[in-house]
Amino acid sequence: MITWRRLEESDFALLRGWLEQPSVARWWNHETTAEAIRRDFGPAARGEEPSEDFLALLDDRPVGLVQRCRLADYPEYRDELVPIVDIQAGAMSIDFLIGEPDQQGRGLGSRLIASMIGRIWTDHPDATCIVVPVVAANRASWRALEKAGLRRVGQGPLAPDNPADDPLHYVYRVDRPDAG
């Protein structure tokens, strides 16, 4: 069973270890010094930034991270997506990782995504859709999105997290079920 709790500063050592895992570092390409983790994840953990970071717990064991945000709260990010896909008012986005190596490649990603989508619909009644860009080369990530019910709605160049990657991204979307 997947449950969620907000990321706290006491979780930063765990997160740092996940970000150092080669399978995570390949796609997240994040600085892993303690200072960088505090700088980049601290504001959300303290509620000073509008994004929300959640630890995914599988049978009470932390196994991954999902970040979620309203695209309206990050206009530069939203504006980068607009040439590729229509971004309607109320659109949200997620990013995710499976940090525990023994849980990677087992279908957990799609379960985490589906679970968080359900939580977004509950926690954010104004959310109209969820839009998720993913670098085209990250097949495991976009397959997890598809298995969780998102559909590919566009593709185009976006700045990749890892400069080694081609800018081509696929953009996925799921609409609120009761949106009509």
Task: Please characterize this protein's 3D structure.
With about 180 residues, the protein is α+β, with helices and mostly antiparallel strands. It has a single domain (about 1-180), classed as 3-Layer(aba) Sandwich (Aminopeptidase), CATH 3.40.630.30. Helix content is about 35%, strand content about 30%. The chain has 6 helices and 7 strands. It has helices spanning about 10-20, 20-30, 35-45, 75-80, 110-125, 140-145, and strands at about 1-5, 50-60, 60-70, 90-100, 130-135, 150-155, 170-175. A 7-stranded mixed sheet has the order 1-2-3-4-5-7-6, with helices on both faces. A hairpin with a 2-residue loop joins strand 2 and strand 3 (about 60-70). Helix 1 (about 10-20) packs across helix 3 (about 35-45) and helix 5 (about 110-125) crosses helix 6. The longest helix is centred in the middle third of the chain and has 16 residues, at about 110-125. The chain is globular. It starts with a strand and ends in a 5-residue tail after the last strand. About 30% of the residues are buried. The mean pLDDT is about 95.
Identify the CATH homologous superfamily.
Gcn5-related N-acetyltransferase (GNAT)
Rg, rounded, reads 15 Å
CATH topology tier name: Aminopeptidase
What is the approximate shape? globular
Classify the secondary structure makeup into a structural class.
alpha+beta
Assembly context of the chains: single chain
